[in-house]
Amino acid sequence: MIKIAVLVSGSGSNLQALIDANLSGQIVGVISNKPKAFALERAAKAGIATTVIEHKHYPDRETFDAVMHQQLLDWDVDLVILAGFMRILSAKFVQAWEGKMVNIHPSLLPYYKGMHTHQRVLNTGDVLHGCTVHYVTAELDAGQALTQGVLTVDLHDNVQSLAARVHVLEHLIYPQAVEWICNGTIQHLENGQVLYKGQALKQPIQFCQL
Ligand code: GRF
User: What is the mean pLDDT of residues 109-135?
Assistant: First the structure.
């Protein structure tokens, strides 16, 4: 069984969706860089080990990441899931977990990498918006996309309503992508190629609520 660690900083609604999904992998631990993250309470309630590693207690990013890395090794983790983890990871850490670390981003990547995605979608007047589960690589929000949730932006949408609607999609597509990794439907090969059901994955699998 695949052993999973989830990295969080905040509310942890995606962590909750992963817990509720009864994955065929096992969530063995949750790491938070924020001691007050509600995600820690969700994990404890589900009987999952938690660790707080506060970045402010370490002199630099590399040292902080090295402590996280050691915790992941101690838990014998196969897959790292970023779920609202609000820290940029060092190149060394990303390299160590390449092909074994995924993230969810609130936009239809490759559009709107980085922050404030909902506001930027509204500013541009896009009709389609959503979220993307992707492998994590050294370049921000640029790793291979696995699944996407797509919605249409309504005339009356604002940042809050879009965030809420995208969250609903996140809770659908993240557990699905992770389950596919756990059961081998999605495979990341050593050469970096990603397979879905044994075939090269050219486009993310899309779930639409149009
Ligand atoms: C989500 O919007 C996700 O897209 C982003 O961080 C947020 C985490 O929310 N990466 P939650 O803590 O899972 O509720």
Answer: 98
